[in-house]
Amino acid sequence: MDEIKIDGLSFFAHHGVFDFETKNGQRFVLSAVLECDTRKAGRTDDLTCSTSYAEVAEFLVQFLTEHTFLLLEAAVEQACDALLKRFPRIRAVELELKKPDAPIALEFESVSVRIRREWHRAYVALGSNLGEKEAYLRGALDGLHRDDTRVTAVSDFLITPPYGGVEQDDFLNAVCAVETLRTPEELLELLHTLEAEANRERTIHWGPRTLDLDILFYDDLILYTEPLKIPHMDMQNRDFVLRPLAQIAPYVMHPVLGKSVLQLWKELNAEWN
Predict the structure, then answer these.
(1) Is residue 100 a contact partner of residue 109, using CB atoms and an 8 Å limit?
(2) How far apart are CA 123 and CA 245, in angstroms?
(3) CA Rg, the chain, in Å?
(4) Which of 239, 151, 159 is nearest to 187 (CA)?
(5) What confidence tens digit (pLDDT) does each residue in 34-54 have?
(6) Backbone conformation region of residue 239, classed left if phi is above 0, alpha if psi is from -120 to 50, else beta
(7) Is 85 a catalytic residue?
(8) Using one digit for the tens of pLDDT, what is the confidence trace for 81-105?
(9) In the chain, at which end, N or C, are there fewer CB atoms within 10 A of the end residue's CB?
(10) CB 253 within 8 A of CB 260
(11) First-to-last CA distance in the chain?
(12) Which candidate in 99, 229, 259, 266 is catalytic?
């Protein structure tokens, strides 16, 4: 990814743990690395195809002077978040916020916090087999539209037989692609919130449910914790996952199995035929 850099942006703000810091203020120095595609702007020399570093600098200074934070960590975290939401061409940002006059009773040059944040691509499976199934799925898709998460593609809604051996009604299934600033754990928390809002009850394993939401992929991440496992551990055995996923992301590679979604779906169908 191409980079636009802003170095040594100096401004006066009111961040700090001590009362005199938030009351009197002090000097801060900010540096930013903006990751974005500059190819079109470079070939056309068209400002509308680029991200204005002047606008970014003004935005960051305005944000960090209008808000007050106790911690540098909070200041850079919130500034990254606001910046990525404001400028759609920026895919990732690295910010370093320096505090040259920090209250330290020793000789030093400065203290700083540097972080990198970015938009992530994830795929989420949706399912329902109780009540107004389509309404539950559409409600979940609406609920995924947040300022830090946005749905970018949705498969067809497919009627599929139940999976797991529990006798129950057919499911309505789909898969959506999302871009999110959330970590996997934060995205899972959002999915659980949406399930709870749909009155999801976890009484029977693989049993009927108003709404079931699962993270299938999150970038190329491989993560096995409790309760979060990415990629989804059983997706390669589930036609109701692979079929809709192949509609919107046929060539996305499974980071563990080393095969595309389309390959996995074709192999699963071959086993059945």
Answers:
(1) yes
(2) 8
(3) 23
(4) 151
(5) 999 999 999 999 989 999 999
(6) alpha
(7) no
(8) 999 999 999 999 999 999 999 999 9
(9) C
(10) yes
(11) 44
(12) 99
